[in-house]
Amino acid sequence: MSSKRAKRKCDDFFKKQSKQGLALGFGDIRLRTNFSEILPDETHLGSYFSRNVAINIPIISSPMDTVTESKMAIAMAKFGGLGIIHKGLSPEEQAAQVAKVKHHLSAFIAEPICVKGSDRVGDILRMRDQKDYGFSSFPVVDGDRRLVGIVTSNDFEFCHDVEGKTIFDIMSTDIVSSEFLDVKGAYQTMQERHKKILPITDKDGLFSGIYTWKDVKRIMTNDAQGYSLDDNGSLLVGAAIGVTEDDRLRAKLLSMKSVDVFVVDTAHGDSKAVVEMVKYLKLNYPSIDVVAGNISEAEAAKRLVDVGVDGVRVGQGPGSICTTRIMSGIGHPQVSAIYECAKAIRGSGVSVCADGGIEYSGDITIALAAGADSVMLGKLLAGTTESPGSILYRNGKSMKVYRGMGSLGAMLDNKASRERYGQSGKSSDKLVPEGVEAEIAFKGDVANILFQLTGGLRSGMGYVGAANLDALQEKADFYRISSSGLTESHPHGLDYIKDAPNYRGTN
User: Is the distance from CB of 255 to CB of 288 less than 8 angstroms?
Assistant: First the structure.
């Protein structure tokens, strides 16, 4: 996140367009190349999603019910980005999704899932499967929260009567525990004692948490390099909230699960309700960053900065499944919106996230060059292994559902979607959708998509001669192109184009 207020090379370009009454989208412009001593592999992609939330790649997964739940958020953070859990879930369900991300990779788990000795083995296995836990080891505590044993995946595997046996029957009581240690101390103890789980007790002997070997080892051996981590070694994760009274409970539950950033998620972020929610969150949860949106005008960005946001989300209607501009008649073409919002708050320390309209990796380069600190993606990350939903089969092809949060289906399925668009109807004839539902081809693991997207970004930075994102914004300048220039930019004059991992054609 650049704090520089100095004039940038692209300022004159956008000033000229504005004087002509023009606002530009991604298909209207291309970056100028510069003399470069920077190879793509030498570029640094680190940025900020919000004032205090640093990320290693400037890519955020959108809080949509067909894009981001815990599996996507985990994958995003492990690649260096960030996932925002959608609010189409109940407050309790959303908080549980955040907890899954925080527990996935944690040097110290302060609130591990515990079981009781009297629990039936079968009941615990069913709980594990129903809640989709990615682990099978549990501390066993008594009614006073004193540690009495440990049950592990081996104990479950060798239990041949899961309905008749209790945890008492299969747990291990050969426990190595300690009063609180830092990560280095835990690593040494676990190495010496050959233990994969190290319970920690307080000075009164009460159970307070665990270290797990795979997570401690990963941190100590630097295997987590490139991950987006908090100060405790857990994966970063954000969560979307609305602006109603119910969302205050949602915020409380999310804070209890150590969410890293609140995203106030509305279709029109320049509103009284958003301002009041931002004030509430900053007053009651001062240690958690707040990003608000969506907006597309410079004055809106200034108003949000004035009430204390740590980041703004720019984009009203540019998404591939969004019909807001067509249905309502409003809309600011996305590249100009990014530039004008970013310029208005340049030097404030508040980050800009460009949300929507991105079709190719080159559009990411353009968005960041125009002033964004990160981009939020929906369609490009949907249809992957980690996105919610089952794989469908259509005419021999594997597909997944992708829908806008303003689509009729999303509005009918959850209250949060209706509230996002300021609607209260509960039947199809009482709702005005601002999005559509679709099916897109199954793409495989999201890490492969992110590899292609960051590779294209690095290539663009190399052409501009920018070693990092601050340099990209300082050096970037643009050409406005014609429809012929856009046609010329794509492959053309060919009878058949073989599929490529980063290009799907223009049809």
Answer: yes
In angstroms, what CA-CA distances link 350 with 84, 243, 367? Answer: 18, 21, 16
Q: In which residue ranges of the chain is pLDDT below 70?
A: 1-4, 106-107, 505-507
Question: Residue 101: in which H helix or E strand, if any?
Answer: helix 91-104
Q: What are the sequence ranges of the domains in the chain? A: 11-103+227-489, 121-220
428, 407 Cβ separation under 8 angstroms? no
What values do phi and psi take at 315, rounded to 5? 145, 115
* Residue whose token pair is 């429809």: 483
Tokens of 308: 């204390």
Does the predicted TM-score (pTM) go above 0.90?
no
Q: What is the CA radius of gyration of the chain?
A: 24
C-alpha triplet 244, 63, 278: angle, nearest 5°: 40
Q: What is each CA distance from 29 to 26, 213, 371, 483, in whole angstroms?
A: 6, 50, 15, 10
Residue in the structure block whose two tokens are 């609305």? 242
* The dihedral formed by the CA atoms of 76, 345, 363 and 386, expressed in degrees to the nearest 10: 20
- Say if CB 56 and CB 31 are below 8 A apart: no
Looking at domain 11-103+227-489, which of 3.20.20.70, 3.40.50.1970, 3.40.50.410, 3.20.20.80 is its CATH number? 3.20.20.70
Give the Cα separation of 115 and 99 in Å (integer): 17
Cα angle: 385, vertex 100, 442; to 5 degrees: 10
- Predicted pLDDT at 1: 52
Please give the pLDDT value at position 186.
86
The amino acid at residue 217 is K
Q: Which of 311, 318, 331 shows the shortest CA–CA distance to 404?
A: 318
Length of the chain: 507
* Residues 453 and 464: beta-carbon distance below 8 Å: no
Give the closest residue to 59 by CA, choosing from 385, 465, 381, 404: 381
Is 361 in contact with 377 (CB distance < 8 Å)?
no
Bridge partners for 441 per DSSP? 399
User: What contacts 504, CB < 8 A, 6 or more positions away?
Assistant: none
Which amino acid is located at 162 in the chain? V
Q: List the catalytic residues.
A: 322, 420
Contact residues for 7 (Cβ-Cβ < 8 A; gap 6+): none
Is the distance from CB of 240 to CB of 263 less than 8 angstroms? yes
Percent of the chain with pLDDT over 70: 98
Please answer whether residues 361 and 453 qualify as being in contact, where contact means their C-beta atoms are separated by less than 8 angstroms: yes
Fold of domain 121-220: CBS-domain (3.10.580)
Q: How many CA atoms within 13 Å lie on the side-chain side of 191?
A: 9
At 72-124, the pLDDT tens digits run 999 999 999 999 999 999 999 999 999 999 988 766 777 788 999 999 999 99
Whether residue 314 contacts residue 353, with contact meaning beta carbons closer than 8 Å, is answered with yes
d(CA 219, CA 187): 10
